[in-house]
Design a protein that fits this description.
Blueprint lengths: L9 E5 L5 H8 L3 E6 L2 H13 L6 E5 L12 E3 L1 H5 L23
Parallel strand pairs: 1-2, 1-4, 2-3
Length: 106
């Protein structure tokens, strides 16, 4: 709700963990994309996406978010990165300049 996602919007979840937010966004009609550095979470998130029949709307990659180049997203979230003990807070300046995003603090 807070992301104000609408059908057809593109969404990125940085540090998506088990993929719950990616799945919820896809179920709202968004094109949802997640990235994680955990191979176990990557496998499980994609298994859940496949099991729910959301492969056309959602995907999770085993990848560092700083490696994105030229991608555009309507919304970006980073819940998992904020709570992970191994990672520090992501400041918007850390998102590659080639990734286009729209910020809303509401």
């Amino acid at each position: 709700r807070k992301l104000r996602l609408e059908a057809g919007m593109s969404f990125l979840d940085i540090g998506c963990g088990w993929g719950s937010l990616v799945i919820a966004a896809a179920q709202c009609g968004a094109q949802a994309h997640g990235v994680t550095l955990s191979r176990v979470q990557y496998d499980e998130a994609n298994r859940r996406i496949e099991e729910l029949g959301l492969s056309e709307q959602a995907r999770v990659e085993f990848r560092d978010y700083r490696e994105f180049d030229g991608l555009t997203f309507d919304r970006i979230a980073s819940i998992g990165m904020v709570i992970s003990p191994q990672v520090y807070f992501i400041h918007p300046s850390q998102i590659p300049k080639t990734v286009t995003w729209h910020f809303s603090a509401t």
